[in-house]
Design a protein that fits this description.
Blueprint (H helix, E strand, L loop, with lengths): L5 E9 L2 E9 L6 E6 L4 H16 L3 E6 L3 H6 L7 H16 L9 E6 L2 H9 L8 E5 L8 H6 L4 E6 L5 H8 L6 E6 L7 H18 L12
Parallel strand pairs: 3-4, 3-5, 5-6, 6-7, 7-8
Antiparallel strand pairs: 1-2, 2-4
Helix pairs in contact: 1-7, 3-4
């Protein structure tokens, strides 16, 4: 699918801070996928670009979202483990999207990795009316907590490297989820390796193609 995308650099309000975000959008997209990250390192940036490019080619708009500011990322490395705070910031981004008329009516998906996975699940457990599906690239889904894991009502796919040291812990957290789920094993090169990422991205794209309704099929919002 070929789209004429408009790329915008944004600042989204989240309590006392403004979060950097990158929107790629066109009028005829089939849905919107948020790609959230809790750290601002080059590896995370490269992964976001690869995922965004693939989703854009498949006809989706994307919103790359930094859950930490540049100042926080530099001065407070423990912020990435503050799951309640990061989850609130995901919800702040969802609230911002609610007030963007060009994006109304689009089904939304959410991608996260690392510690942002726990925040994404925690936020999604409280925002089932604002999201349609989740995809976690490994990460600390256990940080969501047992309550949010059990309360999740959205389809979730978790892609996990076979040599991830936290694999057993993630699987234990995964078993607490009652919603529709899928567990995707990734070769032992790890999700940071370009070859492994190239293999998991088609799975990610297919997940959202299957679970995000087309904009034309979505129920119009009451205004």
């Amino acid at each position: 699918m070929s789209l004429s995308l408009r790329h915008s650099t944004l600042s989204l309000p989240a309590g006392p801070v403004w979060l950097a975000a990158r929107l790629a959008h066109a009028p005829d997209v089939r849905g919107l996928v948020i790609i959230a990250r809790s750290t601002l390192d080059d590896e995370e940036a490269a992964r976001e670009r690869a995922i965004s490019d693939a989703l854009n080619r498949a006809g989706f708009a994307t919103l790359g979202l930094d859950l930490a500011t540049a100042h926080e990322d530099e001065r407070d490395p423990d912020l990435r483990f503050n799951t309640p705070l990061l989850a609130n910031r995901v919800e702040a981004a969802l609230a911002w999207l609610d007030h963007q008329p060009p994006l109304h009516g689009l089904a939304r998906g959410l991608v996260a990795g690392g510690t942002a996975s726990g925040a994404a699940i925690r936020a999604a457990s409280r925002s089932a009316d604002r999201l349609s599906a989740l995809f976690c690239l490994g990460g600390r889904i256990d940080l969501a907590g047992a309550g949010p894991l059990g309360a999740l009502a959205l389809p979730l796919c978790v892609a996990v490297s076979q040599d991830d040291p936290g694999r057993a812990m993630m699987h234990k957290a995964f078993e607490l989820i009652h919603a529709q789920t899928a567990w995707q094993d990734i070769d032992d090169t790890g999700l940071s390796a370009p070859a492994a990422l190239a293999r998991v991205i088609p799975v990610l794209v297919h997940w959202f193609e299957h679970h995000l309704p087309n904009a034309d099929d979505a129920t119009p919002e009451n205004t």
